[in-house]
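Alpha/beta hydrolase family protein
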Amino acid sequence: MVTWAQVRQWQPGPLQDAVGRLNASYNKLVACSDDLRGITTADGWHGDTASAASAAANKIIDDLEEYAAELAAGRRSFGETGDAITGVVNGVKEAEGLASAHNFAIAADGAIVDNGPTLCVPEDQKDAVAQERQTIAAELRDRVEEVIRQATDIDTDFCAVLDRILSGHTIDATGNDNQHTSLAAAGDSGFALGGLSVLAPPPVDAAPSMNAAWWAALSPNQRAALIRDHPDMVGNRDGIKAADRSKANLNLMDRERQSFTAELDRLKREDGDSDEIARIEERLKALNAITAMMHNPDGTLNTDRQLMSLDMTGDHPKAAIANGDVDTAQHVAVFTPGMNSTVDGNMHGYVEDMQGVRNSAQDMLLKNNTPASVATVTWLGYEPSSFDDPGSLFGLASGDNSSFGGDKLAKFDQGINAARPADPHMTALGHSQGSLVTGISLSHSGTGVDDAVFFGSPGISENFGIDNTAHDLKIPEGHAYNLRADGDDVATWAPETWRYGRAPYDMPGMQQLSADSATSADGSQYASSHGHSEYTKTMPDGTDSTSKHNIAAIVAGMPQLAIAAR
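Structure:
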């Protein structure tokens, strides 16, 4: 069993340096192939002595073939092991960096030692801080476990190759035709046996911190191979860096399109089931819509966007698209849209709206001499209810699809933090049914969300008749906000049923922000929003509505610029 103390000492350099020497020896050896051919028997020589000489020559050739295989297997295994160890080194570095940043330590046996907060914690915050430290300790344990798992996998694979080499059984050279010997062919056989496996990912339902730890412990080459060959194992795994998820999902999208197109052609040829044809056509429309959202008008890839999830399973397609770099932005907002939202229908408009919020937040930061980068994510990772799909209305009535979506959103948010060395300022945005999903997600601990903005909300709790408060959300006190526009019946009348908890516009602890026309402290004029769908509205002259300004202010981490409701 590999220990933490051992992996802390691992370095790739010696193995990588040995590859060059092994390769030089191998090249010298295979150059002898021509000289070996034909020496097994001399023309006109017969008898016992000739047979003995031939046997000796065959033995030499067989040994050299085995040696060629050993050198080829060795140079490949040394190279791949050295490469894999770079992932272990990175995993150790990230784990110890996280531990140091929060005043933890990792003992030689991998145990997590909590040295306590570095600052004095007020009495009323002790429970929250204790919970946060438990979350960090759990993430550190996940990281140690994945580094050890990767190191053990490397050690097992490398030792298996070395055992074959040291025992002289890399290949069986005795079965070769030595009249036509090729040391290069023997080397190719050995090379094929010298490769290392890539560590399998954690279970599908693993915590985002476990996924992040697994990804960190892989080498860049191993990650690239998985993105290329197994994008389905990467693209939807919360905890993996957004840029890597996007590359994998773009690869996956091409494969899905080819698969669905072939299946659709087959069904149409064979006069197949009409419902299945409609299902596949919906998925192809969704893929085409995502392709358009991820590319510029000239057809080039929009490098300022990231495809953070792509899910063609279930009743309807699902996806998440980011504006900006989620891996590096100081401020990240995750927006969850509501009822009647679809990937191939209105997701494009939501992505554009979130680009507008991002622009407004960045402008706000710049004007206030605190320039910082902002990224916004449109997360349609659940299946909203729809009037076009009567069956889905049961999910709205029962809260099942919102509850399931809330659980998924919580893991998505956790994954953004787990994938980064330092947590960003993160804001959860929820509109309509999406505000319910967002509220449910914030009942989970450790999402990393710092602020939440609900707009057009019918409620934020899945529990019927519960007199909940904003204090029930697991975010910092006073950082939950609600907007209700004039004429928004969903936000006005739906909460009166208390189906989804207490009305957000009358909820203790919820900060109420304006959606009316207003003038800010610096004299800027903002227009009102009306109805259920204008909260991120931009005026024809390019100015923001009050509600959009307020959303951007919270996303930018500047709540002092938000305009309170009258």
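The chain has a mean pLDDT of 89.
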